[in-house]
Amino acid sequence: MKWRYLDRGASLRSRATTERRNMMNKGSWARSWRVVMGAVPLAWGVVALAAEPRVVPVEEEIVEFSAQISNEGLTYDQYLAHMQDLHGRLLGELPDGALKTPVQIQLSDEDLATIGTRASLDEPLRVGVVKPVVPAITVTDRNLGLSVRDSKSPAGAVSRTNNDRGSIWTQAVTSAGAGGIRVHLTNFDLPQNAELFIFGLQGEAFGPYVGRGLNGDGDFWTDSILADTAVLQLRVSGPTAADDLRGLSMTISDVGHIGMQFVSQVVQVAASFCGNPDCIVDASCHNGTPADPSKNATAKMEWIAGPYIYTCSGGLIADNNPSQSNFFLTANHCISKNNNAQNVNFYWRFATSSCNGACPSNSGWPYKTIGSTVSKTGRRGDFTLLHLNSNPPSGSVFLGWTNAPVANTNGLDLFRISNPNFGPQVYSMHDVDTGAVTCSGWPRGERIYSNDAVGGIDGGSSGSVVVNASSQIVGQLSGTCGYNPGDPCDSASNSTVDGAFAYYFALVQPFLNP
After folding, report:
1. Fewer beta carbons within 10 Å, N or C terminal of the chain?
2. Residue 16 phi/psi, 5° resolution?
3. Buried b (16+ CB within 10 A) or exposed e, 358-397
4. Are 245 and 162 spatial neighbours (Cβ–Cβ below 8 Å)?
5. What is the helix, strand, coil percentage profile of the chain, to 5?
6. Does the global pTM surpass 0.90?
7. Residues 180-195: what's their mean pLDDT?
8. Three-state secondary structure call for residue 76
9. Half-sphere exposure of 380 (CA within 13 A, CB side)
10. Residue in 484, 158, 126 with CA at minimum distance from that of residue 309
11. What letter would DSSP give residue 222?
12. Element (H, E) at 445
């Protein structure tokens, strides 16, 4: 028997009437990966899990925690106003000729063919590729002379003097056919009076990046610009003397190319809305369900690991930690390493404005934050608890949770909001199925097996939290176990599998409930 992480998932299915079960019934724990029990389009194999301390269930007190609403972040209107002001300032001081000779990234047919695929069952959905800049572009204090005449900028870059006798250095980066651009900066070290920004021509703008960069080590990825061209602008406030710039450095090492099909929501399969398979349903069409709070807790994720850009989903989780807050739960098979967590872009409340309404545009300035660190992760239970570097939007819901096991509570209704295919939020409802055949490496108890009752999941839904009738987190999505996991709409052949919060609760309790 084989299993597969979430790439293609479950679907709409007629649901026999099931009686709601009490959440306090004792059960077991589960992990959410897609599993293959029959023929699959690609050759999948059983993956042996690495040795890891096992969490053994014991009789323990049920711990529950209520949802929290945070108003510490910006509202969307504030976020939008800030971006418009910043973009207007940067664009208004763009040096003449700055866009004439951009750094151009070329993708081969082989590169393009990898977008929208997965190479192995433990890999999330790819939405883009990474290409090195050859030769890499290095900027030093010599590239920011006090006048254009003094500048020795690399080919394509433009430098000029500010009105305050400082300097502006600009370099455009483009990749034909891209839906989005990210830039990898290394050897990043700016003096106190220098700031780097990145912006697009349609209105997005991010920064400033200062000092040693986002991670404090001189090596980071910028925010995504959802267009085929991004502009880097290094600004040094003046008046500036040569000594003020001494030691300044940064290198443009790589560029990430996000596939256009994931930004424009081009329909590639039989679709119900926004390019999704016809079994996937719009979350905006389902209101008044226990998943409603999840709409203000869920974010789709986009990050770079090695040569690819990936996507998953996840959700905010409440805590009473006096020294930290802003925790976010997703799957281990999505994110498990800090160097990946550091460059995650979180897209908040990305949804249609009305039931089956116009698809939201990824290039329409979605509310994004960047960066996180791994607080705790585990392959058993397929969980990762992240600590966000920035506040989510004002009004975000940090979902409540319970360590009551549910994996053996047959027929229990579970509810989910996720962002498959890097698109808008979708809704799904699942019934715990204790009779479902389990897959190798995914024992019931560590994982929750369920049948899809309404809607479904697909590639990119991985990591999305699943809640009970009280809107409490009980697990997060790994994938599908079944005979036909390549078809997200064949719920008769497949089970949806979640990692059970109850199973690994002892590992995350020191962070959420110290």
Report:
1. C
2. -65, 145
3. ebbebbebbbbbbbbebbbbbbbbbbbbbbbbeebbbebb
4. no
5. 10, 35, 50
6. no
7. 95
8. helix
9. 20
10. 126
11. P
12. none
**What are the tens digits of pLDDT across the range 28-67?**
323 233 333 322 222 222 222 233 344 445 556 899 999 9
252: its two tokens: 């443009």
Reply yes or no on whether the pLDDT at 440 is more than 60: yes
Decide: 408 and 393 in contact? Cβ < 8 Å.
no
The 3 state secondary structure assigned to 250-280 is EEEEEEEEEEHHHHCCCCCCCECCCCCECCC
Residues whose CB falls within 8 Å of the CB of residue 129, separated by 6 or more in sequence, listed in order? 107, 111, 112, 114, 115, 256, 257, 307, 308, 309
One-letter identity of residue 305: A
User: Which residue, 330, 309, 345, 304, is CA-closest to 386?
Assistant: 330
- Residues with Cβ within 8 Å of 452's Cβ and at least 6 positions away in sequence, in order, are 10, 11, 12, 13, 428, 429, 430, 491, 496
DSSP label of 177? T
* Contact criterion met (CB below 8 Å) for 310 and 263: no
Q: Which DSSP symbol is given to 420?
A: G
Q: Is the pLDDT of residue 426 over 70?
A: yes
Instruction: Specify the amino acid at residue 302.
Output: E
Beta bridge partners of 339: none
Provide the strand spans (E) within 389-507.
396-398, 401-402, 413-418, 426-432, 447-455, 465-467, 473-482, 494-500
Q: Which of 208, 194, 200, 193 is nearest to 227 (CA)?
A: 200
Mean pLDDT within 265-278: 65
Domain ranges, ordered by start, for the chain: 92-263
- Partners of 305 in the beta sheet? 308
The residue with greater pLDDT, 76 or 24, is 76
Residue of 250, 259, 301 lying closest to 133 (CA atoms): 250
Burial (0-12, 13-18, 19+ Cβ within 10 Å), 114: middle
Both structure tokens of 182: 């990210």
Q: What is the mean pLDDT of the chain?
A: 84
Structure-token pair, residue 456? 């479904």
- Residues with Cβ within 8 Å of 375's Cβ and at least 6 positions away in sequence, in order, are 324, 327, 385, 386, 387, 508, 511
- From residue 15, give the alpha-carbon distance in Å to each of 130, 411, 452: 43, 11, 8
Amino acid identity, residue 380?
R
Dihedral, CA atoms, 228, 231, 232, 238, nearest 10 degrees? -170
